[in-house]
Amino acid sequence: MHRRTAISTAFGFALATAQAGQSVVLRYARFSATADDPRIHFPLALLRAALLAQGLEVEFQPAEWAMERTRAIKAVADGEIDFMWSSLGREIEQQLRPIRIPIYRGLIGQRIFIIHREREAEFARIQKLPDLARLTAGQGVGWVDTQILQAAGLKVVSNTYDALFKSLARGTIDYFPRGANEAPAEVAARATEFPELMVEPRLLLAYRSDNIFLVGRENTALAQRIEAGLLALHASGGYQRLFDAHPYVQKVLAEAKLAQRLRLEIPNPMLSDEDRRIPERFWL
């Protein structure tokens, strides 16, 4: 029996035999060396609620080291960690088992920009996509967003997530596109280290995308629990209540001011056919 199969079989047994009130430890991919990465709060709260709807109490344990997306995919596939969340896309869905229920209702594909404060006037002159194409975006290593932006004719360089903030501060990239649910919290979390960075106030680069949960391909037990729990939350209204009440989501939405932005639409050629069939009720 392969190592990953042995791990997922043992994990499936642990799930199946967990008693009421007994916690199961789930290990997840850690994407930043920052002690309190604001991006983890809503996905973990949502997954906790979904699994609790399935009668399963969980404890979440981050990976010991921060890892880039490519390394995280391998860690999940090899059973070193139990799950991750990442953007929809054919490539990752061929390597892992996707649970195709968007975590943020599409906010990940509503991209606003982190920029250097000294560049605000320059971005204020952008009116259409070719204007933006003259500048260079930064994206994380292995992110599917890199291919989406490049397919739209935009220039992109890749670096580690934490290094991209340093690149912005130094001026080696011009902007860092982030999900509307991410940018305000990320800038706030780094205000002391990078006071020169800000959220650009008027542009929105939009495409169909969102984060989903992914587990190892053999980890059927966990995938089924997550999917059933998320569907139950949506059916009961629990998901919408959590989305509407969660302080992280509501704070960043209030700060992002999406309705007031100039919207630049681009396609997402990286979606699988299954991604394109995700029901509209799961999107904003």
Automatic annotation (TrEMBL):
| SUPFAM superfamilies found in the cross-reference section | Periplasmic binding protein-like II (SSF53850)
Name of the molecule in the record: ABC-type amino acid transport substrate-binding protein
Q: Which organism is it from?
A: Inhella inkyongensis
